[in-house]
Write a structure and sequence with these properties.
Radius of gyration: 21 Å
Distance between the termini: 25 Å
Strand order of the largest sheet: 3-2-1-8-9-17
Oligomer: single chain
Strand content: 15-25%
Largest sheet: 6 strands, mixed
């Protein structure tokens, strides 16, 4: 039985057998609805009251909900049988607290009775997915942006940085902007999320964005699911621009390219070229129309003597690799650590307890 790889994000959970040249067999929303004991959902129950988010800004926050979600994924989705559980590799967000790692390994051995466990940091795995062991990852997730320099498969934590904005903040920004230009229209965030995924894009540069903001030529009409017709134009460019001008979100922070360039400063200068010239973009937001071109344009203008350059994924890798590159890297790594017995075994766990995870996995 193939080892299973699980990448649990704030918005989507990706899971499946470790087959690196295929997309994960399960990609499902991470958020869940709490159902009453009798399984009924009354007509007047408020959805907001029963939505549960097991993962918030990349970290597991609700362990009971996470246990339920993993039970569904492993036994219903992937066909595990109780009493015959296999091995599992988890992708680990940047700067995950030690206590969270220990609680995860404890849950997997004590509740799910797995035969083997491994975890590796998402930044490292995203590089593996494009055939690199050194470089920088810029991961724009649903709840955060992680920028991590990696040397020889090791994240340089002294240089890594997390920006507490992500896709959810861009969705809220789009909702605000659309409400200004469409007074009287009631927007809900799930509709705006779909609009963001369909329409959001990046202008070529700041000058082009400034022209768009003062223009009405880019407006188009769109019908919402409830029949309301809205105008959407410059708002779709504001979403992408916020990544390069965070002041749009009310943040005093550098744009994403400048953040990347500054992140390598604490690392020895002899590594700067190797790091910046092997930059990998990941996360759903990174596939926004025009984002990659704008990123490269900004890279050519940045303050660094060494310009960041993007690594393209190999042709044999699945399409939309940016959406699940950490999962693919996990599938590659699983093919090494489990056959070579580098993972945490049940005997290891029974002998040492949850703290074994720090010694064998990170």
């Amino acid at each position: 039985m193939e080892a299973v790889v699980v990448d649990a994000g704030s918005k989507l959970l990706k899971a499946g057998p470790a087959v690196p040249d295929q997309a994960p067999s399960m990609i499902i929303p991470t958020h869940m609805k709490r159902v009453p004991e009798d399984g009924s959902l009354s007509e007047n129950s408020l959805c907001e009251d029963i939505v549960v988010d097991p993962v918030v800004r990349g970290y597991i926050r609700d362990w009971d909900a996470m246990e339920d979600l993993l039970h569904h994924v492993l036994y219903t989705g992937l066909g595990w049988e109780i009493g015959n559980e296999g091995q599992i590799l988890f992708t680990d967000p940047l700067c995950t607290p030690k206590a969270v790692r220990e609680q995860l390994v404890q849950l997997m051995f004590e509740t799910f009775n797995i035969s083997g466990f491994y975890a590796s940091e998402q930044a490292v795995l995203s590089l593996y997915a494009v055939g690199r062991i050194s470089g920088c990852t810029v991961d724009i997730g649903h709840g955060k942006i992680d920028i991590a320099p990696v040397i020889e498969g090791a994240v340089q934590h002294i240089a890594s940085r997390r920006v507490e904005i992500g896709g959810v903040d861009l969705t809220k920004l789009l909702a605000q902007e659309l409400s200004k230009s469409n007074p009287g229209v009631n927007f809900n965030l799930s509709d705006v999320e779909k609009l963001k995924e369909k329409f959001s894009c990046c202008a070529e540069d700041e000058v082009a964005y400034a022209k768009i903001v003062n223009s009405h030529d880019v407006e188009e009409k769109h019908m919402l699911p409830d029949g309301q017709v809205i105008k959407i134009g410059r708002e779709k460019y504001t979403v992408g621009e916020a990544l390069f001008q965070p002041s749009i979100l009310g943040l005093e922070a550098h744009g994403i390219v400048e953040q990347l360039v500054r992140s390598v400063t604490p690392v020895s200068s002899e590594n700067h070229k190797q790091l910046l010239e092997n930059t990998v973009l990941c996360g759903g937001t990174a596939s926004m129309t025009g984002f990659e071109d704008r990123f490269q344009r900004e890279a050519g203008l940045c303050s660094s003597a060494i310009r960041p350059a993007l690594v393209k994924p190999p042709e044999y890798m699945p399409e939309n690799l940016t959406h699940y590159s950490a999962w693919v890297g996990g599938a590659i790594l699983a093919k090494v650590v489990f056959p070579q017995n580098q993972h945490v075994t049940k005997a290891d766990y029974d002998e040492t307890g949850p703290s074994i995870v720090h010694r064998k996995c990170f």
